[in-house]
Here is the input.
Amino acid sequence: MNRLVKLFSVLGIIIIGACSKDEQTSGPDYNITYDLHIAGGTIVDGSGEASFAGDILVSGDKIAYVGAVNASKIQANQTIDATGKVVSPGFIDAHSHGDPLQANNDLLRNFLRQGITTVVLGQDGTNPGYFPSDGPERDLGSFSKWIERVNQQGTGPNVATLVGHGTIRRLSGGGEKDRVTSEEQVKMEQLLIDAMKAGAYGLNTGLEYVPGRYADAEEMAGLAMVVGANDGLISSHVRNEDDDIVHQSIAELLEQGKYARVNASHIKVVYGKTRAQGDAVLKQLRDARAEGIQVTADVYPYLASFGDMSYLYPEWAKREGEFNDAAINRREEFEEFLRAKIIRRNGPGAILISNGEYSGKTLAEIVAITGKTPEAQIIDLDIMARQPPISL
Here is the structure.
């Protein structure tokens, strides 16, 4: 199981490329000088088996041996004492955002500092590549160019990328339409084919967001067939994660699973109150697997979510034009809807603003400053966020 080495210490954990007792053959070669000797650690190899005490020997960028050694016989250019530490393979972040080509993100090295050695980009229906980091223009052929530039420049962690459904929907001309034309469908499918040939691992959908929320079953089936034909994966932020709709949303993903492998991103039951609700979702997935659907799910280990304010909006205020109309002509109705949503999401103290003037403050803290109601404040914050910057 030789792998490229990624090595650093995080909270008493030493992260390295995949390591396994499979490396224990006839013992280490004491006649050579290793580049690295990690001594005396507790090894968790990622296989699911119990941890074990042992050493790791590295030559170049390969793990040469894992297991017990005679330390007095080992010759190494560098030795790390791992006593009292866990030695583990690097972690994979299955749902990441960012672009290693953006100048302000340090090649995604922030992931390395958390012990993450592989990130999967292209989430929630969008992906880097079609919108180059050095300009806002849309370039239909830029995805392969983006991969070439990433390879040339390098990154902190390893990078895998999915294709955003929302991105190719916009590039095909489908945009925020209720239904794409047959010509736009063909363009989407060709963009997906081209991207997968260039190195993308499959498709990611954000069906709770604009424009993905307007995709119908026929549109998604066509794209799923392309993914399956190219041995890819569909990973989906499903259409709705609310407790009364989540089963329908997962069923929609399982329909796509008839054509390709599928994964439910950050699976959860929003507003869920009981363990039974979560168990029912897991049973739905297990039943599908028993029927031959290749479905998986990932989860984040905290009771929160991150997205834009449109999560809270009614269906008639999602698109920009609809939002503008609702904010002006249906303001009272809009605020009434938001008031109920805020209460259901545990109140204004549970909503944290992540950017703009009030970044880092909860909605409760903001309205204490402005004197507005929480629902009015959300609308006004979004109005301000949509304003073009002022040039001085």
Observations:
- DSSP finds eleven helices and 17 strands in the chain.
